[in-house]
Structure formats: structure tokens, C-alpha cells
Amino acid sequence: MSFLELAAVEKKYGALTVVKGVDLSVERGQLVCLLGPSGCGKTTTLRLVAGFVDASSGEVRVEGRVVSSAGTTVPPEGRNMSMIFQSYALWPHMTVFQNVAYGLNLRKLPADEVKRRVHEILTVTQLLPLEHRYPGELSGGQQQRVSLARALVVKPEILLLDEPLSNLDANLREEMRFEIRRLHDEFKYTTVYVTHDQSEAMTTADVIVVMNDGYIEQAGSPEDIYARPESEFVARFIGGTNILSGARLSDTALRCNGDFVLDCGSGKLAADGKAIASVRHHDIHVGETRQAEVNCVQGTVARQIYMGSHRDYLVTIPGGETIRAIAPVEVKLPVGDSAWLHFPKEKCRALSR
């Protein structure tokens, strides 16, 4: 039995179903990221776990105890969960200390216990020198740390984060990704984290759950999701990739539209329907001459951009399809020149859907 379980959970608003039969198991102490585009159902799934919305069908269970179902819902305050929002939701008239102590005071803990626990968490989150400041006197990153400290200080069973870094600039977002992971490793809370940013998910998660149109497309470790996508949607959403399509020749080989055979080193093509494969931009070899007997096609350079550490190519192959490839700066082919593309078999992934 997993610590947190979602079993065939659905959420409907009238005729619209936004979460569609979601099954998910989260082990104690894991950090799980719900990842997907806007409108895919990830925030609604988080709100179902938190108790902010009722399930239309299915169950949410914590240690086997049903906290949400179509017939009954334990209110948020009865779930021992903490939630962190995009907007930080700090009290502007309270100091850092008072904001962090708020949940402990609601629980009517003794004053000396409140002070000890607040100072402990402020030290861990590097906020102790700022304990007497107000939110308006803090940077965005500092406010986010206060929000984290307030959520952690009550020692929740489950920590829920709803796109917590979306209001920060790029540099702060990167810094806070590592901070969230550091705090998770220190406290080992079971965490469910919603984001649309694949870099956040790759940096922070033990398990990434990719959602699309209310369904779970795939769940696995960051390495599994990136290196072994099971569908075209997952391959496109996680990292830059080329999707090649054509006629199925076997479980792992297809004749592509550019009239060349692509043999894949992993995955399996669907028995019927469109045969498709994924090859990451940086895994394709670009050159002036043919580099191998198999998995090669000749095309014409349509675009070449110098990026400092590499060159970014767009190559048009027979049939009119364009392939994007990342090559070393030493590979310099002008627009309009002929170019050979080699797709290493071990880097090609056959997709089942």
C-alpha cells in the first residue's frame, strides 16, 4: 500500500471532465511532480488531494484512509497537509516570524515551542536574519522561502506546491529549484509539486507524472521520462525532439517519409496506425559526407545558427520534412549546402502512440 493513492479519480464540472480516471501511487518521502501544459488537469488533481474540490468519482487515500470520494470529503483542515500557492499568500501586516508561526499558533502550541520551531525552520531556510521584516520588504525569492518555511514548520504529512516559482525571474527560479530539492532531502516530506516547466520537474522530482487532457500520459523517473518516452506527446513535451513518421516495417523499424529506413534501438512501434519514432536534436550527427550505412539521409541546410557552444541546424530532407539537429561548432555548413544526417540506432526511440 502506497502512502498517497489516487484510484480512478475523476472531476467533472457539468459536461466537462477535467480529470479523467487518474491512478497514481506516491510512496512516503517521495517528491512527485505533476507536469503538463495549461489546462491538462494537474492543478485540479492537486486540489483534489488537498480537499479544495470534491471528486466526482474514484478515491483519494492517505495510508489507506479515504479522504476524498464521490460520497465524502475530509475538509482541508482535517488532512494534515500544507499547500504553497503561486502568490505566496503571506500576511502583509505580519513579520516573517509571525507569518511562519501562524499555523503553530492556530494549533495552540506553547509560546516557547512556537519560538523554538520557528527559529529552527528559519535557520534551515536561511531567513533568521530577516525574522522581523515584513513581506513587502523582501525579494520574491525571500518571500517564497517564507512560504516554504510556513508550510514546513507545521510538519505536514503531505506538502503540496502549486507552481510555486512561476512569479520569480529566471535566475531566482533556478536557485529556488535547488532550494526546494535541498529542503526536501533534509525533511523527507511526501511532496506533490505542480509545474508546467520541465526544467523544474527534472531538477526537483523523484517521479515525474506527465499529464495531458486530464489523463496521465506517463509516470517515471526524470531519466525514464526523458530517455524512454512512450508517446509522441511525452517525447515532444520533455526536451527537444524530432518526430519521424512513416510505414511500419517491424516492431522497431519504419520507412520514413524521406524514403530512408530508420531502425530504433529502443521502444516498440504500434501494431497498427501511424509508425512514429523520436530522435533528440543533440543525438543527430551532421556532416558533409555519409557517416554510416544505415539510419542516414541526405538533405539541404535550411538554417544554421551559431550559439557559441554549438550550432543549431534545420535540414530539409526528401519529402519536405525538416529535421532539427544540434552540432559542434566545428561543423559549419552554409545554408543551401548539402548535409548528411545520421541517426544513431541506440538514440532512436520507437513510440507506441
Let me know the largest β-sheet: 6 strands, mixed
Outline, from the CA principal axes?
Answer: globular
Number of helices: 8
What separation lies between the terminal Cα atoms?
30 Å
CATH class of the largest domain: Alpha Beta
Descriptive terms for the model:
2 domains; globular; alpha+beta; OB fold (Dihydrolipoamide Acetyltransferase, E2P); Rossmann fold; 21 strands; 353 residues
Task: Give your account of this protein's structure.
- This protein has 353 residues and is of the alpha+beta class.
- The protein folds into 2 domains: 4-227, P-loop containing nucleotide triphosphate hydrolases (Rossmann fold); 240-351, OB fold (Dihydrolipoamide Acetyltransferase, E2P).
- The chain contains 8 helices and 21 strands.
- It has helices spanning 42-50, 96-106, 111-124, 140-153, 170-187, 198-204, 222-227, 232-237; strands at residues 4-13, 16-26, 31-35, 57-62, 65-69, 81-84, 158-162, 190-195, 207-212, 215-220, 241-248, 253-256, 261-263, 266-267, 275-280, 285-287, 296-306, 311-316, 322-327, 338-342, 349-351.
- The radius of gyration is 24 Å and the shape is globular.
- The model has no long low-confidence stretch (mean pLDDT 91).
Brief digest:
The protein has helices at 42-50, 96-106, 111-124, 140-153, 170-187, 198-204, 222-227, 232-237; strands spanning 4-13, 16-26, 31-35, 57-62, 65-69, 81-84, 158-162, 190-195, 207-212, 215-220, 241-248, 253-256, 261-263, 266-267, 275-280, 285-287, 296-306, 311-316, 322-327, 338-342, 349-351. With 353 residues, the chain is an alpha+beta fold.
